[in-house]
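Data card: per-record layout.
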Amino acid sequence: MNATRRIAVGLAAVALAGTGVAAQAQAWQPERNVEIVINTAPGSGQDVTGRLIQSILQERKIVAVPINVNNKPGGGGIIAYTHLQSMAGNGHSISVASKSLLTNHISGRAPLTYSHLTPLAILFDEYITVAVKADSPIKTGRELVERLKKDPGALSFGVATSLGNPNHQGAAMPLKDAGIDLRKVRTPVFQSGGQAITALLGGHVDAVPGSVGLMRRHLEAGTIRVLAVASPQRLAGPFATVPTWREQGINAVVSNWRGLVGPPNLSAAQIAFWDSAMKQLVATDAWKKELADNNWDNEYRNAAETRKYMDADYAELRAFLTELELVKPVSK
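The structure for this 332-residue chain is written out next.
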């Protein structure tokens, strides 16, 4: 065999070997039941998202094995994420995550954050609103701000479920932009969005910041008035008549993303499988319909993009929570 022939054969062998390695890296798939871990109780926004993912993945046969939803509420996500961390290297467990995975760690409420797990996807953004009772004398977001400029302690905001989280930011950011001293604003904390709304309707708090998903049913029932939504532009459906903060002269855009994380130390092949599964999921008509029906903003990012996004988001959130004097070391 001449030298040219030997080189050609050698290059072909290397190419075939490389192809084999690449194919092997993509070959992993679940061999037993998959669990979607939810860090809140059934019926919550996290739970609804997880069960929607379960339904589409199974009905479209994107994942061939059975998928179970495993609710592990409590501790601001600590119970669920500790469970996930204990499954290191196991691609059969994933968890629905939100921005609270970052804020709870920054504020010292939780020992685990995205860097202790494997970020897999950002799926959508859900914008934050501020609402009052339907019969409240406060008619607009601008009016709310003007009252607090005169007296920062004049009104109370019922926040679910912790200070520093996206709901709290949904009130704090527009007030901060308006120059209001946030340290003087009253912000009682409730264990759920439902409890905060109950307190609002009972006259125990003056306003509640919360996601469009939390507010939708109450807005349609006519029991609340939504003063503003912290989105870049107006939303559709029942929120079409609700002005943004920007329309009212206040620069505030606040959303709560939802996505997926997995246990630590997942292999490249396992991550590639979930990248493929999520890419297929977000392309389905069923998923697109849910986005439209719930005013969710499509923000799909794959695993690599999600890691970069969370790095940047963590830094921005830490800076903002530092201004609110909410950054604390994690309790041992």
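Known properties of this structure: The radius of gyration is 23 Å. Residues 34-126+257-323 form a domain with the D-Maltodextrin-Binding Protein; domain 2 fold (CATH 3.40.190.150).

See the next section for split statistics.
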